[in-house]
Amino acid sequence: MNYEIARRQMLNQQIRAWDVLDERVLDVLRTTPREAFVPESERDLAFADAEVPLAHGQCMMAPKVEARLLQELAIEPTDQALEVGTGSGYLAACLGRLAAGVTSLEIFADLSEAAAARLGQTGIDNVALKVDDALRTNLALHFDVIAVTASVPRLTDHFIRLLNPGGRLFIVVGRPPVMEAILVRLHADGSISEKSLFETLLTPMINADQSEPFVL
Predict the structure, then answer these.
(1) What does pTM read for this prediction?
(2) Is 196 exposed, middle or buried (0-12, 13-18, 19+ CB in 10 A)?
(3) Which pLDDT score is estimated for 206?
């Protein structure tokens, strides 16, 4: 595979077609080697319009979903970011190139270790990787942007309360067959707003309550 041709096709046919036009985001996607973060056995899928399988039933998000996530979060160079679900490390690398610093949580130690190696090989040095369950850990820090890379059945305040005033949260909410990507903002006055972005499907977050709601 010619990775450069595949990368250009991804940008033109998937990313821009999904209204991702922010030049900072496009530049990061153009220059961060996605293929270096894809497991070797799945390398042919690096630029496909599809999720890429990882160990433990996890997945890399489709490129266009990652691109919309990065654009919607409107990351500033001074922002501190939290990623929930390190996975391959690719999105952490992209966040690291847009933000001042990134904390990335991963529940599987082997995924975190592999991501650390890939980040090191690509020269990304502002990402702190931690092996932890994001739903059960108590983080003392607050963040300007939070990217959640797995779905939850319903929106709660669990991640919202980790936002700084003015902070933004990208999260996918719902159950198959319908899930919705949402951007949540915590305004300076303490109020919260939600913006529906698009429908998609993501792997459910481990330890999130997936029980069906009781209906009379």
Answers:
(1) 0.94
(2) exposed
(3) 92
